[in-house]
Amino acid sequence: MAIDHPEAVAAITAAFDAYERALMANDVATLGAFFWTDPRVLRYGPTENLYGPEAIAGYRAARDVADIARTLENTRILALGPDAGVATTEYTRLKSGRRGRQTQVWAQLPEGWRIVSAHVSLLD
């Protein structure tokens, strides 16, 4: 396995950046398209456990976006061969100052790079 496969790092970085732009714009349809459309996809959040694309989409459509703006730091992209990788970052919400962490597992599927597992947590 080639750790930090250059093409995979570039592709995951581009997908991660596009996901972040969609998140900041609260573009629910685009956010949903980044996730694997399989019942095994999951997203663990600070207060919720979401299993399957429908649960993730439902959460996105109903969530409060009052404190959505954030800055990122210590973002890392690690490719695990040409078809999978992990994106991690720390963030600070601008309105509340709350800090958190985010981990996304990305896989290159026939439809493109998709998040197959995600975990978001707050530090306080």
Outline the secondary-structure elements.
Elements: H1 6-24, H2 28-33, E1 42-44, E2 49-51, H3 53-62, E3 70-79, E4 84-93, E5 99-109, E6 112-122
Parallel strand pairs: 1-6
Antiparallel strand pairs: 1-2, 3-4, 4-5, 5-6
Protein name: Oxalurate catabolism protein HpxZ
Organism: Zavarzinia compransoris
InterPro entries: AtzH-like (IPR024507), NTF2-like_dom_sf (IPR032710)
Tell me about this structure:
There is one protein chain. By secondary structure, the protein is an alpha+beta fold. The chain has one domain (about 5-120): Nuclear Transport Factor 2, Chain: A (Roll), CATH 3.10.450. Helix content is about 30%, strand content about 40%. The protein has helices at about 5-25, 30-35, 55-60; strands at about 40-45, 50, 70-80, 85-95, 100-110, 110-120. A six-stranded mixed beta sheet has the order 2-1-6-5-4-3, covered by helices on one side. The longest helix has 19 residues, at about 5-25. It comes from Zavarzinia compransoris. This is Oxalurate catabolism protein HpxZ. InterPro entries: AtzH-like, NTF2-like_dom_sf.
The CATH architecture comes to Roll
Discrete helix count: 3
Helix content: 25-40%
State Rg. 14 Å
Task: Average the pLDDT over all residues and give the rounded result.
Answer: 96
Tally of discrete structural domains: 1
Which structural category fits the helices and strands?
alpha+beta
Alpha carbon gap, first and last residue: 37 Å
Oligomer: single chain
Assign the CATH class.
Alpha Beta
Q: What's the helix-strand series? A: HHEEHEEEE
